[in-house]
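In response to the reviewer comment on reproducibility (Comment 2.3), we provide here a single inverse folding case reported in full, input and output, so that an independent group could reproduce the run without further information from us. The structure tokens appear first.
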């Protein structure tokens, strides 16, 4: 019985070959899905453009490849290329997440994270008028005095 099993196993490639074939299949499926999605998106842009733009703005009707080019152009201008960080789950580079640590590790960041990073900037103009310019001029005087010593 064992001899019969070995005979059948000789016809199967080793497990490593299965892993390589699986990866190649997944890559092919991913590329195929991306191309089909891009073609579908180009077709939707074509339909929407040709329905709305000539009537609303007097623009010309476009072809499928022009619509596809608009999709690519919009992706480059607004979506960029490469990995994207941010969104709801935060920056995922290594083990660091925006929603846990904020953009700057430690220190004063805790205070900003609790109150909102830009909430207090509404007082900046008034601060500069009341105290900022004088404080800055005093700081410049101290720096010039240090450099003079």
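Designed residues, in position order:
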């Amino acid at each position: 019985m064992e001899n019969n099993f070995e005979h059948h196993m000789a016809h199967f490639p080793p497990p490593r070959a299965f892993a390589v074939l699986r990866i190649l299949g997944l890559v092919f499926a991913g590329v195929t899905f991306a191309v089909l999605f891009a073609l579908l998106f180009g077709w939707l842009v074509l339909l929407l453009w040709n329905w709305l733009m000539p009537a609303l703005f007097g623009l010309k009707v476009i072809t499928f490849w022009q619509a596809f080019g608009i999709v690519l152009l919009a992706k480059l201008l607004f979506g960029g290329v490469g990995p994207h960080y941010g969104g709801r789950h935060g920056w995922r580079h290594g083990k660091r997440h925006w929603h846990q640590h904020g953009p700057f590790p430690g220190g004063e960041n805790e205070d900003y994270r609790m109150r909102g990073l830009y909430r207090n900037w509404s007082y900046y103009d008034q601060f500069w008028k009341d105290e900022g310019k004088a404080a800055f001029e005093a700081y410049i005087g101290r720096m010039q005095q240090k450099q003079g010593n």
